[in-house]
Amino acid sequence: MRAIIALKADHRLAVLLEVAGLARSTFFYHQTRLGRPDPRAELEAAIGEVFERNRGRYGHRRVHQELIGAGHRVAKKTVLTLMRKLALVCRVRRRRHISYRGQVGHIAANLLDRQFATPAPNRVWVTDVTEFRVGDRKLYLSPVMDLFDRQIISYTLGPSPTLELTNTSLEAALESVEDTVGLLVHSDQGFQYQHRSWRRLLDEAGARQSMSRKGNCLDNAMIENFFGHLKEEMFHRIHFHDIEALAAEIDMYIHWYNTERISTTLNGLSPVRYRAQAIAA
Questions:
Q1: Which has the closest alpha carbon to 192: 166, 213, 169?
Q2: CA distance 206 to 2
Q3: Which residue pairs, CB below 8 angstroms and at least 24 apart, start in 129-132?
Q4: CA 194 to centroid of chain Cα atoms
Q5: Of 98, 179, 184, 275, which alpha carbon lies 20 to 30 A from 75's?
Q6: What's the Rg (C-alpha) of the chain?
Q7: Which residues contact 126 (CB under 8 A, 6 or more apart)?
Q8: Model confidence pLDDT, tens digit, residues 79-123
Q9: What distances in angstroms separate CA 93 from CA 223, 225, 236, one per listed residue?
Q10: Which residues pair with 158 in a beta bridge?
């Protein structure tokens, strides 16, 4: 009985294929294909996981690098296409705090001269101050970055851009290194960096001072880029009710930035991993 039913079904299929002008082999190929799971479904899930785990802070290039590191074989353009399909978008907005008040102290020469690549850690540091606002309150961040791996060596947070704010972050950075003789520390021409207390800290450490040209933020582009990433990847994505919550989130972001956030300029590694790899080599 079953054989008779199968023969009838096969006869009906033959008739349908003839009417449709479709080869029998082509029909069964597509039938088998439709029964398989979508190969892109797994990839889309992986892309979504990377994007969400990094709190929407990655564009398609960094997502692609994480996928490659996890063993996926996928083209960068495919990742971009799927992220657009999934509406996973990383947007960039940038604002900066300007601390220039004219010449109130010593203006140092631009020794860095946009030479942002350095062959070893603790050869060149850059620093600046940026401002955040929550309601009617402000919070200022003063980080020190090592240009070797873009790692934030130290930072301070405070309600105003004072000498204490910047000096404290520099002191902490200098104390973390055994040999600071010849170290170049670059900043803009903010009043904090013109002050004798800043220069004294550098002199006592045997470090050299460098400053951007007046009104030229490109001379300190690396720290400006960090501020741009920080504000877009964290500050502009979260609604903060108070300064204390913002300060806590900045702490978490800088830890993530140093230890987990991959960089396309660091061979797809975080600053900490890049430094560890360089030291081990």
A1: 166
A2: 93
A3: 129/97, 129/99, 129/161, 129/165, 129/166, 129/190, 129/192, 130/96, 130/97, 130/227, 130/230, 130/231, 131/97, 131/161, 132/231, 132/235, 132/246
A4: 30
A5: 275
A6: 28
A7: 112, 144, 145, 147, 185, 186, 187, 220, 222, 223
A8: 788 777 776 776 544 444 445 455 556 899 999 999 999 999 999
A9: 15, 11, 8
A10: 140
Contact 106, 140 (CB under 8 A): no
CB 257 within 8 A of CB 271: yes
Q: Is the pLDDT assigned to residue 225 strictly greater than 80?
A: yes
Q: How far apart are CA 83 and CA 47, in angstroms?
A: 7
Contact 132, 139 (CB under 8 A): yes
User: What type of residue is 143?
Assistant: P
Token digits for 164? 């204490």
What is the distance in angstroms between the CA of the first residue and the CA of the last residue of the chain? 74
Amino acid code (one letter) for 205: A
* 56 neighbors 90 (Cβ within 8 angstroms): yes
Per-residue pLDDT of 258-273, as tens digits, reads 999 999 889 999 999 9
Q: What is the rounded average pLDDT of the residues 225-230?
A: 94
Any idea what the Cα angle at residue 113 is, between residues 108 and 115, rounded to 5°? Answer: 135
Residue 163: both structure tokens together = 């000498």
